[in-house]
Amino acid sequence: MPMGLVKKERNVYTLPPKGKMAVPCQIYLKEELLPYLEEEAIGQLSAAAALPGVFKYVLGMPDIHTGYGLPIGGVLAVTYPDGVVSAGAVGMDINCGVRLLTTNLSRQDLGSRELQKLLAAIEELVPTGIGTKSKYKLDRQLKKIVEEGVPYLVKLGLADAHDLERIEEGGCLPGGDLAACSKEARARMDQLSTLGGGNHFIEISMVDRIFDKETASFFNLAPEQIVIMIHSGSRGFGHQICQDYSREMAQQASRHGITLPNRGLACAPIQSELGKRYLAAMACAVNFAFANRQLIQADVIRAIAKVLGKETVQIKLLYDVAHNIAKRESHFGRELLLHRKGATRALPPGHKNNPRHFMATGHPVLLPGSMGTHSYIATGLERAQETFCSVNHGAGRVLSRAAARKSITGTDFEEQMADIHYNVSNYKRIVDEAPQAYKDIHLVVDTLAEIGIINLVANVRPMAVIKGEG
Fold first, then answer.
1. What is the pLDDT of residues 336-376, one digit of tens each?
2. What domains can you pick out in the chain, each with its CATH number?
3. Cβ of 157: how many Cβ atoms within 10 Å?
4. Distances from the Cα of 98 to the Cαs of 120, 167, 260, 369, 428, in angstroms?
5. Average pLDDT over residues 330-340
6. CA angle 328, 332, 338 (to 5 degrees)
7. Which of helix, strand or coil describes residue 180?
8. SS3 string of 444-468?
9. Which residues are catalytic?
């Protein structure tokens, strides 16, 4: 058993408090995934369990792997308002998240030629790759966008008001204040409406399997239906905010009487001037990311209309979920600041914070795999209360980017991608995102489904994928 873990029950392991830990850690894993659990990731969870105000336990989701400070797939709850906020426990790509669009198209409507045309048309409208700039001329509106989010895009005529209840937080995390963002961060706001690189993608997929017919029908999902997934975040803007505040929190830690377990978990009291500034800046990045995915959605819809005909295609937003975020929430009868890093909110049916439209089912939970494997749509169940209504955000890496580049050959890559179309001519430019670099998404989602934390609704299989280089 890795580094002191104790099996608590099926798919659940605990790390009892020791040393400076104030609470235990709890990790959700199927036995088959245990060999991929890194000692460093466990160490990062235990370090987070020593932070001031940490509540109940620190959680590791089944996609857990080593990150900066808190592992990816980490959930940290601190008491509000007397706990701390950590920029590193939110993550570099603030509100990296996923949205899913449903269509009235089926697999028969998209042959190889149409898919290739779609990839080209989308790339023509959506800038991809590291450091790309927006094609929208919104410089004068950027302050309002980052402070008011997607509702402000509605005012500009760039988004549909009906989409708002299909986005976490209604597309706007309150409290954003651009004055809390550095000059360097503000200079990177020109990346709005761009995809980025790394694990970000636009994917055209087909519904492969329905698990819950009633909920799938309510979500407008059917076998062999075409759906589109968009995965991006706050781009360089959010990255700069995390860097700025991680550095400042580390510098001021001793002033607040905080001994840091590691620099990646640099933090500040929530009620301190620094803590308040970070939360205001983070909210700006969260809203930037919601707006970013909204504008990418609009461009994807335009591209599809151009290739297939506007009258032919009906496209609707199913839902948009955030990953890297800190939010004030109530759990176990306590007010908490909940850090989800590489973790997704999953509210069960009837939870008061569900959007009205999804009150009876629970909002959709989107769990992407890799560019060559399935992704899942699920909902939270009542037992999700145990995890602060949090689940994994995807499959989780098993190979670092460097290891993937070194070990995965062109033959390996092509075998895994099979008949899936992708936009990059040379596989070496995206080999670090190869399916082999990730855990088995089926094992990951089964970890939580088998013990009643999530309800599986459907899964989808990729047909064509756009990745940004770099």
1. 999 999 999 999 999 999 999 999 999 999 999 988 899 99
2. 2-446+456-467 (3.90.1860.10)
3. 7
4. 22, 10, 32, 12, 25
5. 98
6. 25
7. helix
8. HHHHHHCCCCEEEEEEEEEEEEEEC
9. 393
